[in-house]
Amino acid sequence: MLQKRKNYLIAYMFLLPWFIGFFGLVVGPMISSLYLSFTQYDLLTAPQWVGAQNYVEMFNDRKFIASVKVTTTFVVIGVPLQLIAALFIAMLLNKGLSGIGFYRTVYYIPSLLGGSVAIALLWKNIFGMNGIFNDFLGIFGIAGRGWVSHPDYAIYTLIALATWQFGSSMVIFLAGLKQIPGELYEAASVDGANPFMKFKAITLPLLSPVILFNLVMVSISSLQVFTSAYIVSEGSGGPANSTLFYTLYLYQKGFSFFEMGYASAMAWLLLIVIALLTAIIFFSSKYWVHYEYGGKS
Amino acid sequence: MKKTPILLFVLLHLILLMACENIFSRNDKTVDSPSDILNGPSKQKVELRFTWWGGEERHNRTLRAIELFEERHPHIKIDPSYGNFEGYFENLTTQFNAGNTPDIIQFGGNLNDYVYRGVVLPLDTFIGNELDITLHDQSMIDAATFDGQFYGVSLGINTWGLLLNKSMFEEAGIPLPHITWTWEDFIEISIQLSDSLEGVYGTEYFDHNGFGIFIDQRGKTLHENGILGITYDDVVDWFQLWSDLREKGGALPADLQVTSTLTPEQSLFVRGKVAMTLIPSNLVEAYSNYSEDEVIFHPHPNNEIGRSGVSLRPSQFLAGNKYTRYPNEVALFLDFIVNDKEAATILGNERGTPVNSEIREFLLTNSSEMEREIFKFIDWVSITSDAPYVPNLPGYNETSALFLRISEEIAFGKKTVEDGAREYWNELEKVLTQYNK
Fold first, then answer.
1. Name one Pfam family in it (chain B) (predicted).
2. In CATH, which of 1.20.1740.10, 3.40.50.2300, 3.30.70.270, 3.40.190.10 is domain B160-310+393-436?
3. What is the least distance, in Å, from the CA of B64 to any CA of chain A?
């Protein structure tokens, strides 16, 4: 018994650096941001307690409501697109083509680069007024426009950028596809099933746990999207608030407008929304996620 | 056997500690070098961090001035950090909060926002010692004085005017406007330029800086003692003017306008998209250097009754961080930047015309033709100006972003002129109330 406890002690000592990081860099800041969300705090002078005022103010703040709309649009359109693109590419790459390793790498690259500033800048130029996207449209005689600089289209270029970064969900899908026993497809073929029926009756149900995982991960990261919008609009959320993502507005409030208390309140609200959304997805999974071997896999 | 984990543990932490040591040992370089000992009682080595925003031109000039300062004061090292305007103040505010703020900071018209929050170094105790402001224009000293305390040297006197692309005017066969032209002339010329030049628009949108002039022309002030001096109608008129001009093709369409930037080398004017733009006088040289065409700096159009509304303004301020360890050296550096002849020769007019009258005269005899043109322009404004200097609204970052956003929403037809104007006016009231508390 004593021996066992001693071993635990050693284990905890090894974990100590991680604990220091966890408490110092995650738990500590979270608690202080919770406190700050109940204060008026301009970052330069001491915070003043204002109770729930920040939380109340949000619902009368037009920009806040605009930012919620932008982020909701992004999640509702972007998440399914990202998942479909990732699954589609994963299925292509699951075929036994020659040089498949090379393609897998190539298709994964965008998600390694995707979150970077350089890619957002590149994207901004591709879809700018004189960008190559418009040159491409020009070949077909279509007059392009400033895709990132028009409020009706700017968000869709950002959705396209996010969709293009399907790599990490794709890899997970690919692993999931590999797990599906080939015999099932063979048996289905013998019974005369066409590819679509095989996809519907075998691939989707057996892949559903992986879809659940990807859905949760992509939803969370979509709610938190920041870099691309910040770069494309140079931090303004423009044109005309069309790319004012929730996190971008949070950043503006905290760092440009001297309202860190309000920004903290926004951050906590986002945390609650993410938790709720995840809970809803998990709850709904009872009805559509299929676990082979009675849910033990 | 059992000892191995403990050994590993100790080893791991030792490595971590070694990594940390670098952080701990970085400070306190007070050990005298041999040369200091030879030179008798030595001054302590001082390192000051200096941050500013700007374009390429400003960076090059400032870095050269820093070199000169370090030659003059070998015991002081200036550690520069510089970049674009975008993100500059967000970064600065974060640094203040984290306690690693640079010692010397370039502020813009939002100096008041930081003074108000008590993080700017008051300079009164250094005046007459490290810092000399006896030859500075009183109005520029006043602009950096809040509640009787002086907080920053003005880096230059500025005035707004229109930059015209002379080559484009010639190509279009349109004569340059008279120096006392009106908005009506401006509108007409913009449309003519757009019509006669392929892929070029007459003018870009003037944004909140232009709005300020527009208000001054009506003999009003944007705000005074926390009270708005404008009416809803003033805002409507401004947005309507631009909305009409955009419709008639004289002004840049909305989706091009939003790509506008404050950095000269990337501006729409330099890229040849527009023939006219509103800029502060200190940037004329940078714009003209980067533009392939011949450009000319021209007075802003007047209103119907001939008021110009343009005043002399401080361009930027150089100020100290209140928590700096070396306030005296900070003051010394500020003094060097605004009062040293050689520094002035290097920095030129890039941050505005020097506020020190002696330096100004000195530069006048030692400057390029372009610079002399600007000096003359500034002189002309100082004689003809009919508008007082009005400091920026409090909450500058927020109110300027608000104005831009509403301008964009109107330009894209997302809001009517009336709705946009109403929203701006209401929001502005809210901000002012917040700061009056």
1. SBP_bac_1
2. 3.40.190.10
3. 29
Q: Do domains B46-157+314-368 and B160-310+393-436 have the same CATH topology?
A: yes
Q: Does B323 touch chain A (CB under 8 A)?
A: no
Nearest to B320 by CA among B27, B22, B34, B50: B50
Query: If you count DSSP H runs as helices and E runs as strands, how many of each does chain A have, helices first?
Result: 15, 2
Cβ contacts of A5 on chain B, cutoff 8 Å: none
Cα–Cα distance for residue pair B430/B437, rounded to 1 Å: 11
Kindly state whether residue A141 falls inside one of the protein's structural domains: yes
Contacts of A241 in chain B (CB under 8 A): 405, 409
Q: What residues in B contact A145, CB-CB < 8 Å? A: 255
Q: If you count DSSP H runs as helices and E runs as strands, how many of each does chain B have, helices first?
A: 18, 15
- Coarse DSSP helix, strand, coil percentages of chain B, rounded to the nearest 5 percent: 50, 15, 35
Whether A221 is in a domain gets the answer: yes
A14: in domain: no
Q: Which residue has the tokens 């707004």?
A: B160
Query: Which residue segment(s) compose the domain that A258 sits in?
Result: 61-295
Residues 225-264 of chain A with CB under 8 A from chain B are 234-241, 251-252, 255-258
Question: Chain centroid to CA A50: how far?
Answer: 33
* pLDDT < 50 stretches in chain B: 1, 21-41
* pLDDT (tens digit per residue) in B177-228: 998 899 999 999 999 999 999 889 999 999 998 999 999 899 888 887 778 8
Interface test with B, best of A149, A233, A260 (most B CBs within 10 A): A149
Element (H, E) at B52: strand B46-53
CATH architecture of B46-157+314-368: 3-Layer(aba) Sandwich (3.40)
Q: Structure pTM?
A: 0.83
- CATH code of the domain in which A217 resides: 1.10.3720.10
The total number of structural domains that make up chain A: 1
Cross-chain Cβ contact B93/A14 below 8 Å: no
Helix, strand or coil, per DSSP, at residue B149: strand
ipTM higher than 0.85? Answer: no
Chain B contacts in chain A segment 80-139 (CB below 8 A)? 128-129
Yes or no: say if B265 and B207 are a contact pair by the CB < 8 Å rule: no
